[in-house]
Specification:
The structure is a single chain. By secondary structure, the protein is mainly α. The protein is built from 18 helices and six strands. The strands form two sheets. The chain has a three-stranded antiparallel β-sheet. A three-stranded antiparallel β-sheet has the order 4-5-6. A hairpin with a 5-residue loop joins strand 2 and strand 3.
């Protein structure tokens, strides 16, 4: 017997079907609620509203579970590469060796970006934020590839647009970084793997060969994999709702980048480093700041600890902590800010106050430390987040189109003035 939920309005009871997902998540299907009752639901922030059915990512915050297409994040981060995970997210299955090699070759053919895009950098103010540049440059790809504007592409045409974006994103991100330094850009070297190529374009020099440590490449693979998708968050929902208007992929991803830019979403790892800098500038007494964090009358709170979704632990943090330790050990960096980070981590993991409240270091805490250790400025952190999240955004956009989902159009409860007559200007 099909399970239903009953809603009584104005003395009349209405039945609505209950849907159960493959992981036994339950949802009340209220798609006909307004037609039957004239009422809508009110759910600020959509915290209790499922806007779609999705087969991309499963997340259980209470149990600390994150899976891409059914595969545990722990297994993917340890055994897979970022490009392999990108294929999994976008196309639904792990590729065979032959399929993955062909996918890599397709991407290699499109890593260059149009030389005219260099002119954008000449127009950006010298202090313009990297995320503003990234959103602009990704959106501009639709002007360089107008065939992407077709709302009804063939499967081959859609795949080509996807491949072009995956291929060009690392080049764009690395050029944003190089231009911020006033350095000449590095062009792609397609003999390198996806992540190594990105790091070479970012840290390489045209004057000499620069060796990228294997621990650094490995850590970057893990960081990008851990950020690749995270269910229906703010930026992912933005990509889907923009794409629901039949906007092209580049425009939809550009909108997602803008949503990620918000400090409540993608700026958490940047906030971690800024907090650590403040502690260092105050004298570096981590015990003092831990005490401030425990003082309910003090507005200070530890950035990078706890998570609004994961209630017990962040499964991504366990993975990236080891990569963080490996990078710091291999590079042998002497940085007082990173020393403070390790002190906070050790104290918070042992302090009963933080243990009881499940305020554990999360993925943003460790990713911020790694990015700083590699030499990235803090305003590049969210750009790197976007690079990692790109396959998830694409997968969600592609799924939304394949499902032929209707254009997004939330309702509202109006709380403004009731009808009133216009008063002419001279009588106001």
């Amino acid at each position: 017997m099909t399970e239903t939920a009953s809603i009584s309005i104005d003395g009349k009871t209405h039945e609505f079907p209950v849907i159960t997902g493959t992981e036994n998540e339950k949802a009340i299907d209220i798609s006909k609620l307004r037609d039957q009752t004239g009422a809508i639901t009110l759910d600020p922030g959509f915290k209790n509203t499922g806007a779609t059915k999705s087969a991309v990512t499963f997340l259980d915050g209470e149990k600390g579970i994150l899976r891409y297409r059914g595969y545990p994040i722990e297994q993917l981060a340890e055994q897979s590469t970022f490009l392999e995970v990108a294929y999994l997210l976008i196309y639904g299955e792990l590729p065979s060796a032959a399929v993955l090699e062909e996918f890599r070759r397709k991407i290699d053919r499109h890593t260059l970006i149009h030389e005219d895009m260099k002119k954008f950098f000449d127009g950006f103010p010298s202090k313009s934020h990297p995320m503003g540049q990234l959103s602009c440059l990704v959106g501009a790809l639709s002007a360089f590839y107008p065939e992407s504007l077709d709302p009804n592409p063939t499967e081959e045409e859609e795949d080509l647009t996807i491949v072009k974006l995956l291929a060009k994103m690392p080049t764009i991100v690395s050029w944003i970084y190089k231009k911020s330094l006033g350095h000449p850009v590095m062009y792609p070297r397609n003999g390198l793997n996806f992540v190594h190529n990105f790091l070479n374009m970012t840290f390489g020099q045209i004057t000499e060969d620069v060796e990228i440590e294997p621990e650094v490449v490995s850590a970057m693979h893990k960081l990008l994999i851990l950020h690749a998708d995270h269910e229906q968050n703010c930026s992912t929902s933005t990509v889907r709702i923009v794409g629901s208007s039949n906007a092209n992929l580049y425009a939809s991803i550009s909108a997602g980048i803008s949503a990620l830019w918000g400090p409540l979403h993608g700026g958490a790892n940047q906030a971690v480093i800024e907090m650590l800098e403040n502690i260092k500038n105050d004298g570096g007494d981590s015990a003092k700041w831990l005490a401030k964090a425990k003082d309910k009358n003090d507005p200070f709170r530890l950035m990078g600890f706890g998570h609004r979704v994961y209630k017990n632990f962040d499964p991504r943090a366990k993975i990236i902590k080891k990569a963080c330790d490996d990078v710091l050990e291999r590079l042998g960096i002497n940085d007082p800010v990173l020393d403070i980070a390790k002190e906070l981590e050790e104290a918070a993991l042992k302090d009963q106050y933080f243990v009881d409240r499940k305020l554990y270091p999360n993925v943003d805490f460790y990713s911020g430390i790694i990015y700083r250790a590699l030499g990235f400025p803090t305003d590049m952190f969210t750009v790197l987040f976007a690079l990692g999240r790109l396959p998830g955004w694409i997968a969600q956009w592609k799924e939304m189109r394949a499902n032929k989902e209707p254009i997004g159009r939330p309702r509202q409860v109006y709380t403004g003035s009731v009808i009133r007559d216009y008063v002419s200007l001279e009588k106001r």
